[in-house]
Design a protein that fits this description.
Number of helices: 16
Shape: globular
Helix content: 25-40%
Number of strands: 19
Length: 521
């Protein structure tokens, strides 16, 4: 049952401290799995940060801080990193946390079937020194390694093995897909995919609780209007996201608050670089126009990003020209300008490339993953049509979307990327490096973009300690990606959260909702 604000005020008046409360929230994308190593996506990792923990974590200001490791230090002359583990930590089922769980979780998360294996590309070996000391040996000096594993979560080796979940199974699922056993502030007590997920505080959590929640329930609501109505009626305490068009109206309602910010996520267009032909063209069946840089440049000039931001995003997003925003480490101010909206230039480029009459193709897009994603894709489709490129738009739920991209069932696609390390190296490793399972790079480079110099620079960027020299390498890589129009970055997605006015929480630019920072007044 919901309590009125008046009743809450009466209770608060007679209570010596903040009372414990129930909390409900709604999102448009249900976590695909409860397995922290199966799917590398923000809805999964953001939710599971409430349940599982890593050696390090990010604080309210995104700084890296101790979690299951109390400290870390470099080994020798850049040979690796030594982590000292926290003692006295238990998993939700009471099992003790030790170095063996760290080793097991590394082996599991870096396995070829894991979606997080790219995180460990620099690691050559993990050595258990004793029960509470673990060494991560790297192939070269890696100054950013501790922060790069902030979303890597530790599982109980005994629990996983006993439940036949020693490895993740993204396609078919296993026990860890629906069940959890972490060390985090909350434990999952009910999981009904697509309907609800219930969490309760873990009474034996090693850290000091900053929340007053006794029970929390997540409900996925794909329809934005339905989610908004649930917030306004008090059926839920928090929704993410708030429909952009409703922000002004919500701000006038005294019972709700709107929290706005700019996310780290860059929204971009991707291409089938290595495809020989288009899959969904009615007339261009013997070639792949997008393999020509001039066609990709034409796409960039055809899209009026300022118009999209003004009409669809209502001025709540920022243009971007790189795979990271200006707030990220490694951003290149000298390369801030993005291609101007110039339909005439787009048509000229198409003519130069041998497509004076344009061509048709298939455009894949999500309709429930990014803010106003389908509306943005509809606008892009119209803009491309004005220069002779005719897109057949196929918008679908995100749970169907990733399998389509991994199966190469597209001619162009929409993608959002938030760098988990808040560093430009992250999208280079995942999106721009030539896909290589053995090297564990390029795992989200769906189109197979490949540049030998980018591949040469990536390990140098990862290992360079001198910040000036490292930035020079990132500058060169960014210039290559822009010149070759590997992707078409468009804008940095805004963060627009809606909460009941009696709720206090923290909004981080990675769009992770951390339940342990919530207070219900």
């Amino acid at each position: 049952m919901r309590r009125s604000l008046r009743l809450a005020a009466v209770i608060a008046a007679f209570a010596p401290a903040v009372q414990a409360e129930e909390f409900t929230w709604a999102v448009n994308t249900d976590p695909q799995t409860m397995d922290p190593h199966a799917v590398n996506s923000a809805p999964v990792l953001g939710f599971l940060n409430n349940v599982y923990e890593g050696l390090v974590r990010r604080g309210k200001d995104m700084t890296v801080e101790p979690a299951l490791a109390t400290s870390w230090e470099p080994i020798g002359n850049g040979e690796g990193w030594r982590f000292t583990l926290r003692q006295g930590v238990t998993f939700h089922d009471g099992a003790e946390f030790t170095a063996q769980d760290v080793l097991f979780s590394y082996q599991r998360a870096s396995d070829e079937v894991s979606d997080t294996r790219s995180w460990f590309a620099p690691v050559s070996e993990v050595v258990v020194v004793d029960d509470y000391t673990v060494d991560f040996m790297t192939t070269a000096p890696n100054p950013i390694f501790p922060g790069s594993i902030a979303n890597w979560m530790i599982m109980d080796s005994g629990w996983a093995e006993a439940n036949n979940a020693a490895l993740p199974d993204k396609e078919n699922g296993n026990y860890a897909t629906l069940n959890t056993n972490g060390t985090g502030a909350f434990r999952v007590t009910a999981r009904e995919p697509g309907l609800r997920t219930v969490l309760e505080p873990f009474d034996s959590w090693w850290d000091e609780a900053e929340h007053n929640i006794t029970r929390a329930e997540l409900t996925p609501i794909q329809n934005p209007a339905t989610a908004l109505a649930a917030l306004l009626s008090g059926d839920v305490d928090f929704i993410n996201p708030v429909p952009i068009q409703d922000v002004a109206r919500l701000k006038e309602n005294s019972e709700v608050d709107v929290i706005q910010g700019i996310e780290a996520r860059v929204i971009m267009l991707g291409f089938p670089h290595e495809a020989e032909t288009l899959k969904y063209s009615s007339e261009t069946t013997d070639a792949n126009p997008f393999a020509d840089v001039r066609v990709r440049q034409a796409v960039a000039h055809a899209i009026n990003v300022p118009a999209i931001l003004q009409t669809i995003m209502r001025g709540n997003a920022e243009e971007v020209s790189q795979l990271v925003s200006a707030a990220m480490q490694g951003y290149v101010p000298a390369l801030a300008a993005r291609p101007a909206h110039d339909p005439d230039r787009a048509r000229a480029l198409l003519t130069e490339a041998g497509y004076p009459d344009g061509f048709s193709f298939g455009f894949k897009c999500t309709n429930n993953r990014y803010l106003n994603d389908e509306a943005v894709c509809q606008a892009i489709t119209g803009m491309l049509a004005q220069v002779g490129i005719t897109a057949t738009l196929d918008a679908m739920p995100v749970q169907n979307y990733w399998p389509e991209l991994r199966a190469d069932n597209y001619d162009m696609f929409l993608l959002g990327w938030s760098p988990g390390t808040f560093d430009a190296e992250h999208p280079i490793r995942f999106l721009a490096a030539t896909p290589n399972e053995e090297m564990r790079v390029g795992s989200w480079n769906f189109g197979g973009y490949s540049n030998a110099r980018v591949d040469e620079l990536l390990p140098m960027i990862q290992s360079e300690i001198d910040p000036v020299a490292r930035q020079a390498m990132i500058d060169e890589t960014t210039k290559i990606l822009q010149d070759e129009m590997a992707y078409v970055p468009m804008y940095v997605q805004p963060l627009v959260w809606g909460i009941r006015s009696n709720i206090e929480l923290t909004q981080r630019p990675d769009d992770f909702f951390i339940l342990r920072w919530v207070t219900v007044n």
